[in-house]
TrEMBL record:
Record Gene3D superfamilies: 1.20.1370.20, 3.40.50.880, Catalase core domain (2.40.180.10)
InterPro entries: Catalase (IPR018028), Catalase_AS (IPR024708), Catalase_clade2 (IPR024712), Catalase_clade2_helical (IPR043156), Catalase_core (IPR011614), Catalase_haem_BS (IPR002226), Catalase_immune_responsive (IPR010582), Catalase_large_C (IPR041399)
Residues annotated as domain Catalase core: 25-413
Cofactor section: heme
Keywords assigned by UniProt, alphabetized: Heme, Hydrogen peroxide, Iron, Metal-binding, Oxidoreductase, Peroxidase
Segments passing through the bilayer: none
Sequence segments annotated as region (Disordered): 1-28
GO biological process per UniProt: hydrogen peroxide catabolic process; response to oxidative stress
Identification of the protein by name: Catalase
Catalytic reactions of this protein: 2 H2O2 = O2 + 2 H2O
Binding site for heme: R69, R109, F158, R355, Y359, R366
Source organism per UniProt: Halobacillus dabanensis
Basic and acidic residues biased stretches: 1-22
Length: 678
């Protein structure tokens, strides 16, 4: 755990409670003498209504749950801090983006979108990536996703999208999945969704971990400097460990083996001191260049290709402390894209404009009233003063007789601040036009960037997208919906639809396609950072293993930042041939190969047929998911017997130094996609 404390930590101290060694009391502080039995009229008599302790305890229990979020219900959070690399004063007057000497406390919530609070975490879905900056000028919320575009262009369609994505109302199925009729019917009938659907069918929708996925603000915002000059901006979070994903078969099995896989990974990495890090990047376009692109910069279904508008890396966020209480922090945190500070402003993106209303409205019902900003996790670190009073859950005890503006009785305080005093002033954009329900013509190209995305993918990523369409649409019962999707995506790529159409019983088109040839290599995960750091390797050992070589190998892997866990038949310890004992972390029954990034097979002199059978299953499954395999001593024979040797990413050898070096390189590579043809 990090020993460095932030201003938010100090503020939260007053709300933290340690119950250890304390007497049990009621919520009002009365010490309780008995908590096992309710108050009765005789030992076998009825419970008495006067039992205030029972009534308080049961009433609190009955009201412990708040409505789960309609979307992003399944999530997990962590505390952190943000450090600026270089001042952005030429773009913005936001203090936390100007002063490199300041450390800004942050709170991040990662989430799936479609599923309920109890759903699986490795489903194919968009992931939320929302960050609250506790700045000295107020809270700034960067409420984003791990995909930089969205399904729709106007917020008025958001209820329709979510209704189509959620379980179908007549049977309440499927949970946390988009493989059903209503979702794909919505996509086919709302063709602005083409670009986002491509991302959702890509590996981006099944991330390896929260620590290894990008984050995007999605919308175009404005940065405004002290001189009043504005620039359009898009925000990015770049994971220091690179952007990596699961494979689909693996993702489905993990949902069965470990429903909490993503939150467990985040929690344990922070507990172990392997703090997740993300660099903040910005894309900036001067206002005068607004119309110099072949897309509308305000369109939330479009990216700004990084080759055209480079991402400037300006700071880093480190997540270094887990939550103390999941409900009080993860569940009660309230994000809002309208929470901005001076120097950050909005644009006319119609999806963003609608979110500025929706988020406040949502929190009112979820958190019981207008005072959700007073909950500890939502409080700003700077003081706040206004004339708002009363309401559910009010915690502030305001003094004085005045609760209105303007006033003379309190000398018109609290007083509005001028812009020079730090008061927020909206960017004075000139707007004019007739009141219409319409959409700009510049928003009506729905397929060019979907094709750009397809063109940018590596061969194995394209194959995964074809497989994803085949799986998702294979679950769609309506033949007409399947046909509509094939027709729709023939505007994106003939190669794509000719790949999946036969798999879903639709005759593939022979003409159509797109004339777009442009690609953006930055969109492909094949071009991401590859590191061995924090990769998790399962080490398969039996009694009588070569402890001298294994010990050296494990030490060298640890030196490279690789996390190893010992797997064997039984819990307890196993003993090497020289007497060294190692603690068994998991057995073949309590863990699975899908929960590791790679396997290192060693075995031992006392391995039996059951052990070999389990080990072979682990190795074959990991191989089928294109993962690195390492083997020394008896493990080399297992690879040979299972015909797994001789492939890329399969490393053998009995020299600890040479093996560890080569195996580390293999682990860093993450996957060996040439095995897709095996």
């Amino acid at each position: 755990m990090s020993n460095k404390r932030t201003s938010k930590d100090e503020q939260l101290d007053q709300f933290r409670v340690d119950d250890s060694g304390k007497h049990l009391t009621t919520n009002h502080g009365v010490k309780v003498s008995e908590d096992e039995f309710s108050l009765k009229a005789g030992e076998r008599g009825p419970t008495l209504l006067e039992d205030f302790h029972f009534r308080e305890k049961m009433t609190h229990f009955d009201h412990e749950r708040i409505p789960e979020r309609i979307v992003h219900a399944r999530g997990f959070s962590a505390h952190g801090e943000f450090q600026l690399y270089e001042s952005l004063e030429k773009y913005t007057k936001a203090d936390f983006l100007n002063d490199t000497s300041k450390t800004t406390p942050t709170f991040v919530r990662f989430s799936t979108v479609a599923g309920s609070k109890g759903s699986g975490e490795t489903v194919r879905d968009v992931r939320g990536f929302s960050t609250k900056f506790y700045t000295e000028e107020g809270n700034y919320d960067l409420v984003g996703n791990n995909i930089p575009v969205f399904f729709i262009q106007d917020a008025i369609k958001f209820p329709d999208l979510v209704h189509a994505l959620k379980p179908e109302p007549h049977n309440g199925m499927p949970q946390a999945a988009s493989a059903h009729d209503t979702f794909w019917d919505f996509i086919a009938q709302n063709q602005e969704s083409a670009h986002m659907a491509m991302w959702a069918m890509s590996d981006r929708a099944i991330p390896r971990s929260f620590r290894m996925m990008e984050g995007f603000g999605v919308h175009t915002f404005r940065l405004v400097n002290k001189e009043g000059k504005a620039h359009f901006v898009k925000f990015h979070w770049k994971p220091v460990l690179g952007t990596h994903s699961l494979v689909w078969d693996e993702a489905q099995k993990i949902n069965g083996k470990d429903t909490d896989f993503h939150r467990g990974d985040l929690f344990s990495s922070i507990e172990d001191g392997d703090y997740p890090e993300y660099e903040l990047g910005i894309q900036v376009i001067p206002e005068e260049d607004e119309f110099n692109f072949d897309f509308d910069v305000l369109d939330p279904t479009k990216v700004w290709p990084e080759e055209d508008v480079p991402v400037q890396i300006v700071g880093k966020m480190t997540l270094n402390r887990n939550v103390d209480n999941v409900f009080a922090e993860n569940e009660q945190v309230a994000f809002h894209p309208g929470n901005v500070v001076p120097g950050i402003d909005f644009t006319n993106d119609p999806l963003l404009q609608g979110r500025l209303f929706s988020y406040t409205d949502t929190q009112l019902i979820r958190l019981g009233g207008p005072n959700f900003h007073e909950l500890p996790i939502n409080r700003p670190v700077c003081p706040f003063f206004n004339n708002q009073r009363d309401g559910y859950g009010r915690q502030t005890i305001n003094r004085g007789q005045v609760s209105y503006h303007k006033n003379s009785l309190a000398k018109n305080t609290p007083t509005p601040a001028s812009e020079e005093e730090g008061g927020y002033s909206h960017y004075q954009e000139k707007v004019e036009g007739h009141k219409v329900r319409a959409r700009s013509e510049s928003f009506k190209d729905h397929f060019s960037q979907a094709t750009l995305f397809w063109n940018s993918m590596s061969d194995h990523e394209k194959e995964h997208i074809i497989q994803a369409f085949s799986f998702e649409l294979g679950k769609v019962e309506s033949e007409s919906v399947r046909e509509d999707i094939v027709e729709m995506f023939s505007n994106v790529s003939l190669e794509l639809v000719q790949g999946f159409a036969p798999n879903i019983g639709v005759t593939p088109p022979q003409s159509g396609g797109s004339d777009v040839t442009k690609a953006s290599p930055a969109l492909s995960q094949a071009n991401t950072v590859h590191k061995p750091d924090t990769r998790k390797v399962g080490v398969i050992l039996a009694n009588g293993f070569n402890d001298k070589d294994v010990k050296k190998t494990l030490e060298k892997l640890s030196d490279e930042g690789i996390v190893t866990e010992i797997i064997s038949e039984k819990q307890g310890t196993i003993k090497g041939e020289s007497g060294t004992e190692l603690k068994v972390d998991h057995t073949f029954l309590t863990i699975d190969s899908v929960l590791y990034d790679a396997l290192y097979a060693v075995g031992g002199k006392e391995e039996g047929e059951a052990f070999k059978k389990h080990a072979s299953h682990f190795l074959n499954e990991a191989f089928s998911h294109y993962k690195p395999l390492g083997a020394t001593h008896n493990g080399i024979e297992w690879l040979s017997l299972n015909k797994l040797d001789g492939y890329n990413g399969v490393v053998t050898g009995d020299d600890p130094s040479g093996f560890a070096k080569e195996f580390t390189q293999a682990v860093a590579a993450h996957r060996y996609w040439d095995r897709q043809m095996v």
